[in-house]
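[retry 2/3] Tumor necrosis factor ligand superfamily member 10: previous attempt timed out, resubmitting with same input.
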Amino acid sequence: MSVAVGSHPLTLCGLLLFAILLQSVFVAVTYVYFTNELKQLRETYIRSNFACLIGDDGDFSSFEDDYQGNDPCWEMKSQLQILIKKIILKNYKSDIFAAVKGKVPDILSYPVDLRQKYPAQVIAAHVTGDNKNAMQKESTIEKNFSGHKIYGWKSHRAPSFQSNVEIENGEIIIRKSGFYYIYSQTYFRQHENENTDKGKQLVQQIYKVTSYPVPILLMKNAKTSCWSKHADYGLHSIYQGGVFKLNEHDRIFVAVSDISMIDMDENATFFGAFMVV
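[retry 2/3] Tumor necrosis factor ligand superfamily member 10: success.
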Protein backbone atom coordinates (compact mmCIF):
# COMPACT_ATOMS: atom_id res chain seq x y z
CA MET A 1 0.00 0.00 0.00
CA SER A 2 2.83 2.39 0.70
CA VAL A 3 4.31 1.92 -2.79
CA ALA A 4 0.99 2.57 -4.58
CA VAL A 5 0.37 5.69 -2.58
CA GLY A 6 3.84 7.04 -3.30
CA SER A 7 3.54 6.56 -7.12
CA HIS A 8 0.23 8.39 -7.49
CA PRO A 9 1.73 11.91 -7.66
CA LEU A 10 4.14 10.78 -10.37
CA THR A 11 1.29 9.48 -12.49
CA LEU A 12 -0.61 12.78 -12.24
CA CYS A 13 2.51 14.74 -13.13
CA GLY A 14 3.09 12.59 -16.22
CA LEU A 15 -0.47 13.03 -17.38
CA LEU A 16 -0.18 16.80 -16.90
CA LEU A 17 3.05 16.96 -18.90
CA PHE A 18 1.52 14.86 -21.65
CA ALA A 19 -1.52 17.16 -21.86
CA ILE A 20 0.70 20.23 -22.04
CA LEU A 21 2.81 18.67 -24.77
CA LEU A 22 -0.29 17.63 -26.71
CA GLN A 23 -1.74 21.12 -26.46
CA SER A 24 1.55 22.66 -27.63
CA VAL A 25 1.65 20.38 -30.63
CA PHE A 26 -1.98 21.25 -31.45
CA VAL A 27 -1.28 25.00 -31.21
CA ALA A 28 1.84 24.65 -33.36
CA VAL A 29 0.00 22.64 -36.03
CA THR A 30 -2.91 25.10 -35.98
CA TYR A 31 -0.52 28.08 -36.30
CA VAL A 32 1.30 26.49 -39.24
CA TYR A 33 -2.00 25.58 -40.93
CA PHE A 34 -3.60 29.02 -40.64
CA THR A 35 -0.36 30.78 -41.56
CA ASN A 36 -0.19 28.76 -44.74
CA GLU A 37 -3.88 29.45 -45.49
CA LEU A 38 -3.43 33.18 -44.96
CA LYS A 39 -0.43 33.18 -47.25
CA GLN A 40 -2.38 31.40 -49.98
CA LEU A 41 -5.31 33.80 -49.57
CA ARG A 42 -2.97 36.80 -49.79
CA GLU A 43 -1.33 35.44 -52.94
CA THR A 44 -4.74 34.70 -54.46
CA TYR A 45 -5.93 38.23 -53.62
CA ILE A 46 -2.82 39.78 -55.17
CA ARG A 47 -3.16 37.68 -58.32
CA SER A 48 -6.85 38.58 -58.52
CA ASN A 49 -6.17 42.30 -58.21
CA PHE A 50 -3.35 42.08 -60.73
CA ALA A 51 -5.70 40.26 -63.09
CA CYS A 52 -8.22 43.09 -62.67
CA LEU A 53 -5.60 45.61 -63.67
CA ILE A 54 -4.30 43.76 -66.72
CA GLY A 55 -7.78 42.81 -67.89
CA ASP A 56 -7.60 39.03 -67.43
CA ASP A 57 -10.99 39.16 -65.78
CA GLY A 58 -12.73 40.23 -68.97
CA ASP A 59 -13.37 43.15 -71.28
CA PHE A 60 -13.33 46.37 -69.27
CA SER A 61 -15.11 48.25 -72.06
CA SER A 62 -18.35 46.50 -71.11
CA PHE A 63 -17.51 46.44 -67.43
CA GLU A 64 -19.87 49.18 -66.37
CA ASP A 65 -22.75 47.65 -68.30
CA ASP A 66 -22.40 44.40 -66.35
CA TYR A 67 -21.58 46.16 -63.09
CA GLN A 68 -22.68 44.51 -59.87
CA GLY A 69 -22.22 46.42 -56.65
CA ASN A 70 -20.24 43.60 -55.02
CA ASP A 71 -17.79 43.07 -57.89
CA PRO A 72 -14.29 43.51 -56.40
CA CYS A 73 -12.65 44.19 -59.78
CA TRP A 74 -15.07 47.00 -60.58
CA GLU A 75 -14.61 48.53 -57.13
CA MET A 76 -10.84 48.34 -57.42
CA LYS A 77 -10.75 49.93 -60.87
CA SER A 78 -13.19 52.63 -59.83
CA GLN A 79 -11.13 53.55 -56.79
CA LEU A 80 -7.94 53.46 -58.83
CA GLN A 81 -9.41 55.83 -61.43
CA ILE A 82 -10.50 58.25 -58.70
CA LEU A 83 -7.04 58.13 -57.15
CA ILE A 84 -5.33 58.77 -60.50
CA LYS A 85 -7.60 61.75 -61.19
CA LYS A 86 -6.86 63.22 -57.76
CA ILE A 87 -3.12 62.81 -58.26
CA ILE A 88 -3.23 64.39 -61.72
CA LEU A 89 -5.31 67.36 -60.54
CA LYS A 90 -3.09 67.85 -57.50
CA ASN A 91 0.21 67.71 -59.34
CA TYR A 92 -0.66 69.05 -62.79
CA LYS A 93 -3.65 71.35 -62.27
CA SER A 94 -1.65 74.50 -62.93
CA ASP A 95 -0.03 72.96 -66.03
CA ILE A 96 -3.43 71.96 -67.42
CA PHE A 97 -4.85 75.44 -66.92
CA ALA A 98 -1.74 76.98 -68.47
CA ALA A 99 -2.07 74.70 -71.50
CA VAL A 100 -5.67 75.71 -72.22
CA LYS A 101 -5.29 79.36 -71.27
CA GLY A 102 -5.79 81.60 -74.26
CA LYS A 103 -7.49 78.92 -76.31
CA VAL A 104 -10.56 80.51 -77.92
CA PRO A 105 -13.52 78.10 -78.06
CA ASP A 106 -15.45 77.76 -81.26
CA ILE A 107 -18.45 79.66 -79.99
CA LEU A 108 -20.21 79.27 -83.30
CA SER A 109 -20.76 75.57 -82.62
CA TYR A 110 -22.41 76.07 -79.21
CA PRO A 111 -26.20 75.70 -79.10
CA VAL A 112 -28.45 78.62 -78.29
CA ASP A 113 -29.54 76.97 -75.04
CA LEU A 114 -26.11 77.82 -73.59
CA ARG A 115 -26.29 81.52 -74.38
CA GLN A 116 -27.47 82.40 -70.86
CA LYS A 117 -24.31 80.80 -69.45
CA TYR A 118 -21.95 83.04 -71.41
CA PRO A 119 -19.96 85.53 -69.33
CA ALA A 120 -21.35 89.04 -69.34
CA GLN A 121 -18.42 90.33 -71.41
CA VAL A 122 -19.13 87.97 -74.34
CA ILE A 123 -20.64 89.95 -77.22
CA ALA A 124 -21.49 87.73 -80.17
CA ALA A 125 -24.24 86.49 -82.46
CA HIS A 126 -24.60 83.67 -84.95
CA VAL A 127 -27.83 83.55 -86.97
CA THR A 128 -28.67 80.85 -89.47
CA GLY A 129 -30.96 80.27 -92.39
CA ASP A 130 -34.49 79.15 -91.62
CA ASN A 131 -36.23 77.19 -94.36
CA LYS A 132 -39.48 77.31 -92.39
CA ASN A 133 -39.50 81.09 -92.73
CA ALA A 134 -37.95 81.31 -96.19
CA MET A 135 -40.71 83.66 -97.34
CA GLN A 136 -39.21 86.32 -95.08
CA LYS A 137 -36.45 86.80 -97.65
CA GLU A 138 -36.80 90.10 -99.47
CA SER A 139 -38.04 89.63 -103.04
CA THR A 140 -37.28 93.05 -104.47
CA ILE A 141 -34.08 95.04 -104.82
CA GLU A 142 -33.71 97.79 -102.22
CA LYS A 143 -33.53 101.31 -103.57
CA ASN A 144 -30.68 102.63 -101.45
CA PHE A 145 -28.25 99.70 -101.86
CA SER A 146 -27.45 97.00 -104.35
CA GLY A 147 -28.86 93.49 -103.95
CA HIS A 148 -31.59 91.69 -102.04
CA LYS A 149 -31.52 91.84 -98.26
CA ILE A 150 -31.97 88.55 -96.39
CA TYR A 151 -34.60 88.74 -93.65
CA GLY A 152 -35.28 85.08 -92.83
CA TRP A 153 -32.64 84.53 -90.15
CA LYS A 154 -33.17 82.18 -87.22
CA SER A 155 -31.70 83.58 -84.02
CA HIS A 156 -33.33 81.82 -81.06
CA ARG A 157 -32.84 78.11 -81.75
CA ALA A 158 -29.71 76.00 -82.03
CA PRO A 159 -27.30 76.30 -83.73
CA SER A 160 -28.09 80.02 -83.64
CA PHE A 161 -27.43 82.16 -80.57
CA GLN A 162 -27.03 85.75 -79.46
CA SER A 163 -25.27 87.30 -76.49
CA ASN A 164 -25.42 91.01 -75.67
CA VAL A 165 -26.61 91.91 -79.18
CA GLU A 166 -30.05 92.15 -80.75
CA ILE A 167 -31.49 90.78 -83.97
CA GLU A 168 -34.19 92.78 -85.73
CA ASN A 169 -35.46 93.04 -89.29
CA GLY A 170 -32.68 90.75 -90.56
CA GLU A 171 -30.01 92.95 -88.95
CA ILE A 172 -27.57 92.47 -86.09
CA ILE A 173 -27.75 95.52 -83.79
CA ILE A 174 -24.52 96.48 -82.03
CA ARG A 175 -24.86 97.53 -78.38
CA LYS A 176 -21.22 98.28 -77.59
CA SER A 177 -18.60 100.06 -79.68
CA GLY A 178 -15.49 98.11 -80.62
CA PHE A 179 -13.76 96.06 -83.27
CA TYR A 180 -15.83 93.14 -84.52
CA TYR A 181 -15.13 90.15 -86.71
CA ILE A 182 -18.05 89.96 -89.15
CA TYR A 183 -18.68 86.93 -91.36
CA SER A 184 -21.32 85.44 -93.61
CA GLN A 185 -21.86 82.47 -95.89
CA THR A 186 -24.67 82.07 -98.41
CA TYR A 187 -25.67 78.88 -100.18
CA PHE A 188 -26.81 79.24 -103.78
CA ARG A 189 -28.90 76.56 -105.50
CA GLN A 190 -29.76 76.64 -109.21
CA HIS A 191 -32.34 74.19 -110.57
CA GLU A 192 -32.26 72.47 -113.94
CA ASN A 193 -35.16 74.46 -115.38
CA GLU A 194 -33.14 77.65 -115.12
CA ASN A 195 -31.05 78.91 -118.01
CA THR A 196 -27.55 77.50 -117.64
CA ASP A 197 -26.26 78.34 -121.11
CA LYS A 198 -24.38 81.28 -119.68
CA GLY A 199 -22.50 81.73 -116.47
CA LYS A 200 -24.46 83.36 -113.67
CA GLN A 201 -22.87 85.89 -111.36
CA LEU A 202 -23.36 85.26 -107.64
CA VAL A 203 -22.75 88.18 -105.30
CA GLN A 204 -22.78 88.43 -101.53
CA GLN A 205 -22.50 91.78 -99.73
CA ILE A 206 -22.36 92.84 -96.09
CA TYR A 207 -23.60 96.33 -95.26
CA LYS A 208 -23.42 98.60 -92.21
CA VAL A 209 -26.30 100.90 -91.29
CA THR A 210 -25.37 104.07 -89.41
CA SER A 211 -26.82 107.56 -89.07
CA TYR A 212 -25.73 108.06 -92.67
CA PRO A 213 -28.80 107.88 -94.96
CA VAL A 214 -27.35 105.14 -97.18
CA PRO A 215 -26.04 101.76 -95.95
CA ILE A 216 -22.25 101.49 -96.13
CA LEU A 217 -20.77 98.50 -97.97
CA LEU A 218 -18.25 96.67 -95.77
CA MET A 219 -17.48 93.57 -97.84
CA LYS A 220 -18.33 92.10 -101.22
CA ASN A 221 -17.61 88.71 -102.74
CA ALA A 222 -18.61 87.66 -106.26
CA LYS A 223 -18.21 84.47 -108.27
CA THR A 224 -19.41 83.34 -111.67
CA SER A 225 -21.01 79.90 -111.69
CA CYS A 226 -21.37 77.45 -114.55
CA TRP A 227 -23.38 74.28 -114.04
CA SER A 228 -23.97 71.36 -116.33
CA LYS A 229 -27.33 71.17 -118.10
CA HIS A 230 -27.52 67.50 -117.22
CA ALA A 231 -27.33 68.08 -113.45
CA ASP A 232 -30.56 68.21 -111.43
CA TYR A 233 -29.28 71.34 -109.75
CA GLY A 234 -26.06 73.23 -109.09
CA LEU A 235 -24.71 74.31 -105.73
CA HIS A 236 -22.26 77.00 -104.79
CA SER A 237 -21.40 78.84 -101.58
CA ILE A 238 -19.75 82.19 -100.90
CA TYR A 239 -18.03 83.01 -97.63
CA GLN A 240 -16.37 86.21 -96.50
CA GLY A 241 -15.25 87.72 -93.20
CA GLY A 242 -13.24 90.60 -91.80
CA VAL A 243 -12.64 92.88 -88.80
CA PHE A 244 -14.38 96.27 -88.72
CA LYS A 245 -14.90 99.10 -86.28
CA LEU A 246 -18.54 99.31 -85.24
CA ASN A 247 -20.20 101.85 -82.99
CA GLU A 248 -23.11 101.52 -80.62
CA HIS A 249 -26.46 101.31 -82.45
CA ASP A 250 -24.80 100.36 -85.77
CA ARG A 251 -26.59 97.61 -87.69
CA ILE A 252 -25.18 95.08 -90.12
CA PHE A 253 -26.99 92.90 -92.66
CA VAL A 254 -26.39 90.61 -95.65
CA ALA A 255 -27.58 91.15 -99.24
CA VAL A 256 -27.26 88.88 -102.28
CA SER A 257 -27.60 89.35 -106.02
CA ASP A 258 -30.48 86.85 -106.46
CA ILE A 259 -32.58 86.02 -103.42
CA SER A 260 -34.53 83.32 -105.27
CA MET A 261 -31.42 81.16 -105.49
CA ILE A 262 -30.60 81.23 -101.78
CA ASP A 263 -31.05 77.95 -99.92
CA MET A 264 -31.75 78.75 -96.25
CA ASP A 265 -30.13 75.61 -94.89
CA GLU A 266 -29.06 76.47 -91.34
CA ASN A 267 -25.71 74.73 -91.76
CA ALA A 268 -24.88 76.38 -95.08
CA THR A 269 -26.36 79.89 -94.92
CA PHE A 270 -25.39 81.88 -91.83
CA PHE A 271 -24.34 85.30 -90.63
CA GLY A 272 -22.65 86.51 -87.45
CA ALA A 273 -20.29 88.79 -85.61
CA PHE A 274 -18.34 88.81 -82.37
CA MET A 275 -16.41 91.52 -80.59
CA VAL A 276 -12.62 91.18 -80.79
CA VAL A 277 -11.63 94.12 -78.60
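[retry 2/3] Tumor necrosis factor ligand superfamily member 10: Residues 2-54 form the longest helix (53 residues).
[retry 2/3] clearing retry counter.
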